[in-house]
Structures are given as structure tokens and as C-alpha cells.
Amino acid sequence: MKHRILIIEDDVVIQTQLRNLLTGNGYEAEAINDFPVSMEQVKTFCPHLILLDIKLPGNDGFSVCSQIRTFSDAPIIFVTSCNTDMDELNSIMLGGDAFVTKPYNTAILLAKIASLLKRAYPVANQESLSCHGVSLHLESGKIEYAGRQADLTKNELKILYYLFKHAGTICARADIVEYLWDNRLYVDDNALSVNINRIRDKLSVIGVNDFVKTKHRQGYII
Amino acid sequence: MNGKLWLKQKLPMIFFNFLCMIGLAIFLHVTGNSLDSIIFISFIWSVILTVHLVISFYGRKVQMDKLLNLTEQLEERYLLPEVMEKPKRADDLVYYRLLKLAGKSMLEQVAKVRRERTEYKEYVEQWVHEIKTPITAMKLLCENHHSQGAKELLVELEKINCFTEQALYYARSEHTEKDYSVREIPLFDVVHQAIGENKYLLLQNGIGIDLQETDDTVYADEKWLCFILNQLIVNSVKYRTKHPVLKFYTEHQGSQVILCVQDNGIGIQTGDLPRIFEKGFTGENGRRAAQNSTGIGLYLCKRLCDKLGIGICADSDGSGTVIRLIFHINDFIQRSL
User: Can you identify the CATH homologous superfamily of domain B184-336?
Assistant: First the structure.
């Protein structure tokens, strides 16, 4: 099931780009175009999560938030350029769940969205991913093929997770490094090669060869 | 009060008395008085004159010293005309009125400047918030269009963001009471945040990160601390050399936690070290290495650190710089929480 996210933001460029970003990451996103915000629109869309700007024409974000809270418990993320403590306090007092300041790191925004959705709408979480018979166990940090397992380090696990998520497409080295940085693993280009080699060694120990393929000058693919 | 100067000021009066004394002596002599009585009368006159001078000098001195003392004790000295006693002498009264008038006009002037300043500060803050909307839009545009060009643009955007933050914090650093909340925060969370905000800048410049993570917590304001770290990171990128590595680690010293930010860049000349936190100081590095040194970044860091009660010091051995942020872990705070 796709989660529906409502964007309440008056800047048209940010609105469309956010929508692209969210749709690209597997959400169903909709934006409100008429201000002041009417609650009917919010009710018809019935979002799972709301991204709310504070500075809006007509009613400001705070009052919109309290209006929404009268009929919905959907998580609300305040996205704003006002980063004073008062605004943050206000937003939390009025029932906001998170406060992200502009210009935001999209990775962090997506992570916040994911974690809020996970908490608000718990689903049986996927503990392992698999591709070509190789499965990756996220909880235990192991990789398995035909009953044989190998332990992975944090870096290796994250790299494999990224490759598994993008199975079948080429992952540029720079994108993998960026992904790792977003996950607080500050790996540079050389260290990435080292990690990839270690992954290949571990894979060959459990009997998989040529699983992570190098695309010359482009990146990796599984 | 200077006695000599006072005496000098009284000279015409003394001279006039002296003339009168001579006149009287001649008159007494002509009317046939004896020399003895003339000398006696002159002597008495001189004694009375001297006593008058001494008494009036000391009376005046006491009065003036009182005023000086009062001024010394006043915190805002320009308020003297409001608190001093209204003088009784005619000329003093004129000076008193002059003081009052001057003070009033100065207060008006100060109030005007202060008002203008607040307005300007508010404008800057508002401007920074406005500019963040287009920055965000550009950032999203770039991130949705993966290409080398977009990545280079993102680096520039991070720089723009850094400069606007600088403007914001500069405007805010004067009235900090309004906008900071000191809380217990995990130190390395803020480090991660600061690195995240400069991700593209660091990646494009091939800066290695060496993080010796601990779970130390400190009492500080998260946003401010993040801003300070941002400035330090940007500096390290600006003054990098080949194979740059940025290292974050902590040291413990008594009741202090010290966050060290170490780079292996061009370092700071020993002669420049004591002045790097001064406003507008760019030093040898500013002249040679980076043309875009402004001398604002570290000055702001120092200023914010002072407000937050964090110590900041720099060390350089010619190859690389270590900036230390010193946090005090107060036993009292920990016990009472």
C-alpha cells in the first residue's frame, strides 16, 4: 500500500519538486493549491502524513495544524525557514510531530517521513531482502545463500542494502557514497572499493561469484 | 579639584583685595594714623581673606568630590543629571541645565539609532528566512535531477546557505537571550548534523572524515553549536591541502569535555594565532591562500561561544589546525536534574 502524503506549501517550485521527490520514493503525494487552506481538501485527500509550511497566505501553518488536529491524527511535519525556538515550541505544542528547517537535507526529510509513518502505521516490517537467491538479513546483519551465511560489517550491510534496493539498475559510486554519508558512515571512494572487495570475498566464501558486477566507469549492479 | 588652578581663577579677586588694602593704607597714612595700626588692620584683612579662601575652596571641593563619587558609582553615567542634587549657585544652575539638555538630546539620538538597528536586524532575519525558500527550491531541483552539474550546484548552494546563516547569526548574536535554549544534547549528533549539512562540499573536495565517536553529552544549544561546527568545517575545506582529512574527537579534562576539530590543511601562522578570533582579521592565510576570507566566521564562532559559555581555542603547528571547543560539565547541573 502506498502512503498518501499531503504537501501544504505555497511556493510552487518547492511544491512540485517535493511531489516529484516523494513520488520517486514510492509515496503518493498531493499538494494544496488554493489558499487559505480549506479543511475539505484535507479531508477528501485523507493523508497519512502532512508536510506543513508555517508561512502560508491566509491562515498560517499553526492554525492549519490545530484545525487538522480536530479531525485527524496523521503525523504532521513542519517544514519551515523560521528556525527560532519559539516556532519549534509552538509547532510541537499544537500537535506537530517533527520540525524540519529549510533548506532541508532531503535524505533526512525522507528518513523522518519513513520513521513517522512506520510508527503511526505499523506494518510487519520486512527483515530480509532477496535477489537472485541471495538474501540479506537486516536485523542480524548477515547474508545468506543456499543455507550458508556470512557476517557483514555495518558499512557492508549498508552498501548491500542500497544495491538490493536498486537491484537491476546501475548504482553510481558517488550515489552509494552519498547514501552512506546520509547514514553517518563517512566512507570515501577508496574505502568503498575496499568494502566492495570484502563483500565479494565474503560472497565467494558462501558460494556466490560475480554477484556484484562492476560497470566500468558507471558503478555497480546486482 | 585642582587647588592651584582654583587659586589662579581667584587671582583677580585677590589682586583687587590687595589694591584696596594699599588704598586703605594710603588713606590711613594721610589721615595721620600710626604705621602700627595700618599694619595691624592690613594683617587682620589678610587673615580674613585667607580664611574665606580656604573655607570656600574646601566647601567647593567637598561638593565636587561628592559629584565625582556619585558619577563613579553610577552604572550608566549619563544619567548623572537625573540623580544629582539641583545646585543652588547661579552659574552651577546654568551648567546643570546644560547637562540636562545635552543628556536628553543624547538619549533621543541613542533611542533613534537603537530603533533603526532593531529594524535593520529584523529585516536581516526576515530576509534570511525569505531567501531560504528559493534555496530550498533550488536544492530540491538539483537533487531531483541527478547529474554532475547538479552536484556542483549543490556545493555552491551549501556555500550560499552557510553565508546566509552567517548573516542570520550575526544579526542574532546581539540579542541572544531571545533565541537559545541550552539542553543536554549528544555531542556527536550535532557533529553528524553539521557534516550532513556540508555533505556535497566535503564530497566534492574529497575530504576524508575521521570520526572517533563517543556518547558524550554536553549542555549547549543544538542550532548554535551546529552553526559553529559548520563554520569550522567550511574553514577546513577552504584551507585544505592534498589528501585532506577532517578529524573529530573528544578529550576529557577534569570536568570538561573538549571537542577537537582537526584538519591537515595549511595551518595558521604562529604570529596570527592570537588574532584569528578578531573581527575582520584574515591574516597571512587570507592574503595568500584564500581570496574570499572575510574574517567573520571565526569571530562569530567566538562570539556565540562566549554567549553559550563554551570555550574555544585554536592550535596550529604549521601543518593543520586543531580547534578545541571546551564544554563544562557542571556537577551541579547533573545533580539537580
Answer: Histidine kinase-like ATPase, C-terminal domain (3.30.565.10)
